[in-house]
Design goal:
The radius of gyration is 18 Å and the shape is globular. Helix 7 (179-187) crosses helix 8 (195-208). The chain is α/β, with parallel strands linked by helices. The chain contains nine helices and twelve strands. The longest helix is centred in the middle third of the chain and has 18 residues, at 110-127.
């Protein structure tokens, strides 16, 4: 994880100091911003690998920062972990809808946060390994090497997490995957209480799959399954 750059966008000085000290001790290059405007400026200049983004920021809140990051072709691939208060559940859901990858609730365990950062960066590195394979079905295809999903020869605009989630489903086509397995394989960690993270991302991914949304099926009481049975029936 050496040389990985993490940008902390947080206006609380005590939390800034805590994160700066612990992230540097863990071997990361740390960039700091006390406002959304400064955070966006630093992100464009330094292109960090990951951003820790507080939602309650002055002048421009974290949701607007997230929206601007994910709407910028140069910045949309940066991993975003939101730092939220326990009362901001609605904001967390909105953050996921805007493309954030994960969240940590304040007050947070520094140890847990460091483990989550390490896992998500390791996972991101693995996602760049070429599988030298293209998955194709009628009108849809996924290029594992380019990590690109296309519908009728049109590439969909997916976040890095959505790409990894879709890739996991395709590698396990027809198999039921529970939330714990998806958390471990896609997000890179196993923590209780984060099942909603999976549900929110799957709901967003389904909306982007348009008329192919029902390829991701909910298996009640078990989890989710990616199946092309309906696709085959529709094409016959």
């Amino acid at each position: 994880m050496k040389n990985k750059k993490i940008l902390v966008i947080e206006d609380d000085k005590d939390i800034q100091n805590l994160l700066h000290l612990n992230l540097e001790a863990a071997g990361y290059k740390v960039l700091m911003a006390g406002s959304g405007y400064d955070g966006l400026k630093i992100a464009r200049q330094d292109l960090p690998d990951l951003i820790l983004l507080d939602l309650m920021l002055p002048h421009m809140d974290g949701l607007e920062v997230c929206r601007r990051l994910k709407s910028d072709d140069k910045l949309k691939g940066i991993i975003i972990i939101m730092l939220t208060a326990r009362s901001e559940e609605v904001d967390r859901v909105v953050g996921f809808e805007l493309g954030a990858d994960d969240y940590v609730v304040k007050p947070f365990s520094v140890r847990e946060l460091l483990l989550r950062i390490k896992a998500v960066l390791r996972r991101e590195d693995r996602s760049h390994l070429s599988a030298d394979k293209v998955w194709k079905r009628n009108g849809i295809e996924f290029d594992f090497e380019a990590m690109e999903f296309r519908i009728d020869n049109r590439a969909l605009s997916l976040t890095a997490t959505e790409i990894r989630l879709l890739s996991e489903f395709l590698r396990n086509e027809g198999r039921v995957l529970d939330r714990e397995k998806l958390l471990n394989n896609v997000w890179g960690y196993e923590f209780e209480g984060y099942a909603r993270t999976v549900d929110t991302h799957i709901r967003r991914l389904r909306s982007k799959l348009e008329r192919y949304a029902d390829l991701i099926q909910t298996v009640r009481g078990l989890g989710y399954k990616f199946s092309t049975e309906n696709l085959k029936q529709n094409k016959e």
